[in-house]
Design a protein that fits this description.
Structural class: alpha/beta
Number of helices: 20
Protein name: ABC transporter substrate-binding protein
Keywords: Signal, Transport
InterPro entries: Bact_solute-bd_prot1, Chitin_NgcE, SBP, TAT_signal, TAT_signal_bac_arc
Order of helices and strands: HHEHEHEHHHEHHEHHHHEHEEHHEHEHHH
GO cellular component, one term: cell envelope
Helix content: 40-55%
CATH architecture of the largest domain: 3-Layer(aba) Sandwich
CATH class of the largest domain: Alpha Beta
Family: Belongs to the bacterial solute-binding protein 1 family.
Mean pLDDT: 91
Shape: globular
CATH topology of the largest domain: D-Maltodextrin-Binding Protein, domain 2
Radius of gyration: 22 Å
Strand content: 5-15%
Low-confidence stretches: 1-40
């Protein structure tokens, strides 16, 4: 890097800071410069022979290393897919962790990453920055390979709508496979609502009525993961889109100068602030992590929780047999909403990547092909109560109450499905700045106007920062 200009050095430093590299002990920000790019990796194994049964030319002597995020889905589904891989291609080294960024970022910097990374959880790496640094493999060969779910189709042709687009970052290339299909919404116990003698509220006035009735019986209405406040966005973003139309979320994704100043944002923030003002949020929620908030919910101490469809599996140890876990769209504000009640945020999620510097890139691609096969997709759904990105993979399966309700929500939404890209494109902005503003709003530390200002100020800062790559939709 001896010929790099001071300006470029500053850009590298900014990018490294965004990735969290400068905080890694023993690493320097500039060391990422040496590992960027996908050319000339001495550690790569030679390709194997391409055949009908080995379309991605995996070297059967190479071995494979897979790292899985040990969150709501656990890692057994991956172990099962690894067994299938091992039958044809040899030994697999498996690891699981909840500290993806802490464990994987140093290896990405050194140029010695595993072959497959399940880049998920609260400590996921900033995939957009990694792609910009050419540290991620283009998944095109995988998508164009024959499917193990339907041999008459390519892998690409078996995927649910939006899955391919979710893996794209400003180009036609696909760098990320989002394996699960997640339904975000407001989760509740059907039996708990029945005990209150109420139905799920479809408008905000009805929501406030349910909250009031619950409070009279000593039950708080809402809880949330205060330590991970971006969980609030799982319902808030769809609420904003429902009130003001899908273009409101597009404006937020596109970092527009007035994205957070729209009346739809104001109305959504005011509605949520009312929950706090009227005492309808479980005390202490601001200090709870996702597991603790879910446990308070399954114990019956709160009626509603913003979450994703992984929660059925993640909370199964504390969920009573008669809980009847159910998901529904965030209630409408009122009849003036631009989109119907059924509107929901649903998308391919649970991201996987194959690092460009991986030793066995072909093996990593083949492992993902196996995961999208009939055996693996069925196993995933039955094991962890979640849909996959493969269209039709859950047909005919006996689904649990939570997953069954999620499937019904998606079917009821039809074309009214929202898929914002904010958290994919601008991870730090989404999780820390917007999430932080939502946390302060829900705790009563600030009001709706101040929350809007903070979100817009943070958005403007990102838009004006030339070191951060921008995306449009």
């Amino acid at each position: 890097m001896g010929n790099t200009s001071d300006v470029n050095r500053r850009d590298v430093m900014k990018r490294a800071a965004a990735l969290g590299l400068v905080a890694v002990p023993g690493m320097t920000a500039l060391s990422s410069c040496a590992s960027g790019g996908d050319d000339g990796n001495e550690n790569k194994v030679e390709k194997g022979k391409k055949t009908k049964d080995n379309p991605l030319a995996v070297n059967k002597k190479a071995g494979l290393e897979v790292v899985i995020f040990n969150g709501g889905y656990g890692d057994q589904y991956a172990k099962d897919a690894e067994k299938i891989y091992a039958e044809s291609y040899g030994k697999v080294k498996h690891a699981k962790t909840q500290k993806i960024r802490t464990k994987m970022q140093p290896r990405m910097v050194k140029g010695s990453p595993p072959d497959v990374i399940n880049n998920s959880g609260a400590e996921n790496m900033d995939i957009a920055s990694l792609i910009d640094d050419k540290q991620v493999t283009d998944l095109g060969p995988l998508l164009d390979a024959p499917s193990l779910f339907d041999p008459s189709k390519t892998v690409r042709e078996t995927l649910r709508p939006g899955t391919v687009e979710k893996g794209q970052f400003g180009s036609e290339k696909v760098y990320q496979l989002n394996y699960s299909y997640t339904v975000y919404g407001l989760w509740y116990s059907k039996s708990a609502l029945e005990k209150l003698d109420v139905e799920y509220p479809k408008t905000w006035d009805e929501m406030l009525d349910v909250c009031a009735k619950a409070k009279k019986q000593g039950i708080e209405a809402w809880t949330y993961a205060g330590k991970h406040p971006y969980y609030l966005a799982f319902t808030m973003f769809a609420f904003i889109g429902k009130i003001g139309g899908a273009d409101r979320l597009k404006a937020i994704d596109n970092l527009e100068p007035d994205a957070w100043e729209h009346d739809a944002v104001k109305q959504a923030f005011e509605a949520y602030a009312e929950l706090q003002k009227k005492g309808y949020i479980l005390k202490g929620s601001s200090g709870l992590d996702h597991i603790q908030s879910q446990t308070q919910w399954t114990k019956g101490n709160a009626l509603f929780i913003p979450n994703g469809s992984w929660v059925e599996n993640e909370a199964k140890q504390t969920t009573p047999d008669d809980f009847e876990m159910t998901v529904a769209p965030n209630p409408s504000l009122d009849s003036s909403d631009k989109m119907p009640f059924e509107t929901v945020w649903a998308e391919a999620s649970e991201p996987f990547m194959v690092p460009a510097k991986a030793k066995n890139v072909e093996g990593g691609l083949e492992f993902l092909r196996i995961m999208m096969g009939k055996e693996s997709t069925k196993n995933f759904t039955e094991l962890v109560s979640a849909l996959t990105c493969v269209d039709g993979a859950a047909d005919g399966l006996d689904l649990g109450p939570g997953l069954g309700s999620a499937k019904k929500v998606v079917e009821a939404a039809g074309d009214n499905i929202l898929s914002p890209r904010h958290k994919d494109w601008y991870l730090q902005l989404h999780n820390e700045k917007v999430g932080g503003a939502l946390a302060s709003l829900m705790s009563g530390d600030i009001g709706p106007s101040e929350a809007m200002k903070r979100c817009q100020k943070a958005t403007d800062e990102v838009r004006k920062d030339d070191a951060i790559k921008k995306y449009k939709r």
